What we know:
Order of helices and strands: HEHEEH
Low-confidence stretches: none
Radius of gyration: 14 Å
Structural class: alpha/beta
Oligomer: single chain
Amino acid sequence: MKSATVSFGQRLFPDAVEAAFGLAASADLLLAVGSSLVVHPAAGLPVVALGNGARLVIVNAEPTPYDELADVVVRGGAGRVLTEAVDAVLG
């Protein structure tokens, strides 16, 4: 039994890639979490979203090529940062 995941170097599911780009094109906000944003095609999602007027938030431990274009950049591990964000929102 294999889960529906893709490991580095494996081919992405074409339908999932197409759906992701369609959603990015219509998004108001794109959250890029835990990604270096250097591996394509996923690294192209922020470009599509920004090109259609979306805001971009990046949560990553290291700098990315899109940091200067982002509305918000948060440095840190995704698990910690997202947990703290949810806790702050829910009080």
